[in-house]
Amino acid sequence: MTIEILGMVATKEASETRGSFYDGPVVDTAYLTRFAKAHDEAGFDRVLIGYGATGPDGFAVAGHVLAHTARLGVLIAHRPGFVAPTLVARKLATLDHLSGGGRVAIHHISGGSDADQRRDGDFADHDTRYERTAEFMQVLRRTLTSDAPFDHEGRFYRFEGAYSTAKPATPAGIPLYFGGQSDAAVAVGTQHADVYMLFGEPLEQTAERIALLRAEAARHGRTLRFSLSTRPIIAQTEDAAWARADAIADETRRRLASTGDPTARAWGMTNSVASNRLQDVAARQQVHDERLWFGVTALTGPGGNSSGHVGTAQQVADALLRYHEIGVDTFLIRGFDPYEDVVDWGRELIPALRAGAARIPAPA
């Protein structure tokens, strides 16, 4: 089986252990360019471009990344509800043509923080947001694929003669990624997503989620691909990797104790079910499946993917390939030392992942 490897770029250097999401220039163009090129050279397939109600525009960032890399694709995070799906379809298709075709994908996040939604004027409740996402994805896909104008009248959107002359540049189209673990999210993603994104949970829990999602998708006559997000921590020896993990936890703890650090104050500001699931796992123990580490997860609270696999490059690759055996074919990996980790992963981790995946048969 082939696998897809995703990274994540940002417009400035910041993580739990370095930089700041708030201080300094919001857009460091030189850093973004260097960061994107590092992913391209390391062998990543795409990079996720995140979304926040106070951050830079993802489509503009995506255009810069595509213009400064040779083959790297983008996965643009997007919150339905602020831009019409017909317009988003035209934006995606246009960007797909301008970048050579096949390099553009979209990730739908319905919003895990009520406060952040309201910054953009959205006061819809959790389940309503997911219902809106379902209708958005339905109209988006139809706009990208329809050969003739169409009408649509739903709860959230109404169109007459909707049509886009700009279609995806390749037959593969624009892949639709989706994330969310609540019951409302499962209902949406299993009907409309191409790739369902999961946080880095233990193998047993991940297998259970995949089985549930596959069964629900089958009810709608659909199949899904699955993505797993993790924060690998690698070193030349296993002991050195665990020592590095301890150092990352120590620095995260130090920054949390600093009340003047606005980055630290922002952690844990989400009420998403997926993030809360990680907190439940971290509360039981901090290491699962030998090397899946929740040390930072336990410190920062619910706030996105924070678990990571620890070991040598080959040990981490072997651990991730166990997920591949149960159906994961996409890995989103991002580091605590963002730029340096990407360069390091390109030397051993990514080649080991691809070589191992080629030897694994397709899951039943």
TrEMBL record:
Keyword Transmembrane: no
UniProt domain Luciferase-like: residue ranges: 27-330
Gene Ontology BP annotations: alkanesulfonate catabolic process
InterPro entries noted in UniProt: Luciferase-like_dom (IPR011251), Luciferase-like_sf (IPR036661), SsuD_RutA_monooxygenase (IPR050172)
Statement: the UniProt record of this protein carries the keyword rRNA-binding: no
Transmembrane spans: none
Domain of life assignment: Bacteria
UniProt xrefs under Pfam families: Bac_luciferase (PF00296)
Record's keyword terms, sorted: Flavoprotein, FMN, Monooxygenase, Oxidoreductase
GO molecular function: alkanesulfonate monooxygenase activity
Protein name: Alkanesulfonate monooxygenase
Organism: Parafrankia colletiae
